[in-house]
Amino acid sequence: MRAASVDRKPLTLHRLREMHASGEKIAMLTCYDAAFAQVLDGAGVDCLLVGDSLGMVLQGRPSTVPVTLEHMAYHTECVARGNRTAWVVADLPFGSYQESAEQALRSATALMQAGAHMVKLEGGGWTAPTVRFLVERGIPVCAHLGLTPQSVHALGGYRIQGRGDEAAATLKRHARELADAGAAMLVLELIPSTLGKAVTAELTIPVIGIGAGPQCSGQVLVLHDMLGLTAGKLPRFVRNFMEGSADVTVAVRRFVADVKRGAFPDPELHAYLA
Ligand code: KIV
């Protein structure tokens, strides 16, 4: 791997809001270590997500459920050391925020002290007061709706969410409540493109899609998926950017460029119908 370098100042929430307001798409990738953080930052990725997908990607587990706060803090520290300018988002893992807003604050504090700029938590409805509690205490929060992998057993598998009028209306309501509670960003996973488009149009915060169609304010992929390193059948929304790329840096640069110019995701190849 070779770390290219973009010439930019460290990204801030203010800058991300400016990008969103001006219509510039936000490119996000998951990242779990210092070496990749250096490469991704150098290749111009705006946001590095220390996702609890590390449980599956790095630890070989069947889901994100067993990932602990200690795992997340360790990988957040590693990413923060390799990163120079990208905005670092870290996942609050399963069981680290569900108990109470105070528990969420303690867990978020651990991730912020490990080097995160923002924490992400999954789910809608009951999460809005927790989001407000964290935001009021100075912690930027990214919400996550649609397919929320920590609830995989409750959802009955990795299935498309938000299909049908009722499910779509509930997701829209949850998105509004989270934005009203102060969430500064929203990840939407595995939902029909029409719903991704509608939520993005309604909210004033950036909406980052993963299998949520091309009309979101930005896109995120799991790094190992987009580098073609994940074995087995991949979801439809994934594109292998290593195909036709000379090396990892070129692949990551292509991802950034394709997200920015709206060429990824392709509605014909990577999107879901209602
Ligand atoms: O953990 C993760 O990688 C995520 C993405 C799928 C958005 O939350």
Describe the secondary structure blueprint for this structure.
Blueprint lengths: L12 H9 L4 E5 L3 H9 L4 E4 L3 H4 L11 H14 L4 E5 L9 H14 L3 E5 L4 H10 L4 E6 L5 H4 L9 H16 L4 E5 L3 H10 L4 E4 L7 E4 L1 H4 L21 H13 L14
Parallel strand pairs: 1-2, 1-8, 2-3, 3-4, 4-5, 5-6, 6-7, 7-8
The chain binds 3-methyl-2-oxobutanoic acid.
Beta-strand portion reads 5-15%
What would you call the quaternary organization?
A: single chain
Record field, number of beta strands: 8
If strands are numbered along the chain, what order do they take across the biggest sheet? 1-2-3-4-5-6-7-8
Count the DSSP helices. Answer: 11
Extract low-pLDDT stretches: none
The biggest beta sheet, please?
Answer: 8 strands, parallel, barrel
Radius of gyration: 17 Å
